[in-house]
Amino acid sequence: MRHRSAVPLLATLGFSTLAGLASVPARAAIGWVGTTFPLRRGVSEFSDLISPYPRLGKPVCFQMGTALSARLITSDTSVTRWKITDAKLTRRATGEVLWQVSNPGTAGTVTRATLWPLPALPSWIDHCTLTIKHLTRRRDGTTQWHAAQSSEVFLVLDAPKPPQSPAWTPVLRHACSWAAGATTAEEAAVRLTEGLYARGTYNGGYWAYTSSSSDSGETFHLRDFLLDRRNLPSRFPYGQCNDFADFLVCLHTAVGGFNIYAQRSNSYWSPGFYFNTLDPAGSLGPTTGGWNYHQFGIVGTAVWDSAAAIVGYGLPQGWERDTTYKPRLVNRYFSGGAWTPTPASGFLPRVTTDPGPY
After folding, report:
1. Could you tell me if 5 and 15 are in contact, meaning their C-beta atoms sit under 8 angstroms apart?
2. How many alpha carbons fall within 13 Å on the CB side of residue 230?
3. 26, 78 in Cβ contact below 8 A?
4. What pTM value is reported for the model?
């Protein structure tokens, strides 16, 4: 509508298995070994990757269920032994402790090259905090206790996909919170679609955070959308169907879910249609009217749509596009119009941090 496989530490290709590197006193650091995926801040188109990465004290994206071990990294040759004294994983939304390992005192140290096993990460999507305390011992027998350090942790199904590869941390904060607890792509899709609809506000179709729109795709000004720069104060998530569909694509792909694309009901320039009674996201309430087109998420020929529920049927979640979604959505086309899903295979929006030409 208009209106993994883990790789060695020194490898230069693929996903790193070393997570949680962080500088601490005495030139020591703690890393953990597990399957991680790169991240970007979503602030600039230049030098936006979180680097050095992965590093304790910085956000980190893990594959859910990752087997986790910690390791000591230090250039101090006098350090000979170490141990984890406390490691705790908590849910950011509730503060619930998912697991905690406590090893008080100085006994039980291991050699500096020895990995320290930790509990596996949960086998579901989540948004967590991982906090680690450790100590090191020197050759002269002295012990140094190192202050606790924490990382924001995103647990995802699998490697994030374009257009969220690398995934943006502000997108993951929403995606991993809204889909928390999901263990499959289907379950994540339901939670994300419902989450965006429940929190979003459809603006009536008057403008979008998009540019360069054509039948082959468009640019989605994702940073503008996340900040809702056209509203003060922000009403995020706020926009029209382009925004809802493009952001839904970002949410699904950020957590390694379905291969989802955006698609329109008909050509960008062709006559539109009158729609059946809808309940758009936000406060508009049930409404009827017409659109030049409608944009939604598509997986194969299954529609996922967070912009509006269809009165009497609910929110489109995995509905077959032509036999189920179309008759529930479309009342009749304007003269000369027709249902022609465009483009035929959908498109991935070009996401950018650049401000739009609004």
Report:
1. yes
2. 18
3. no
4. 0.90
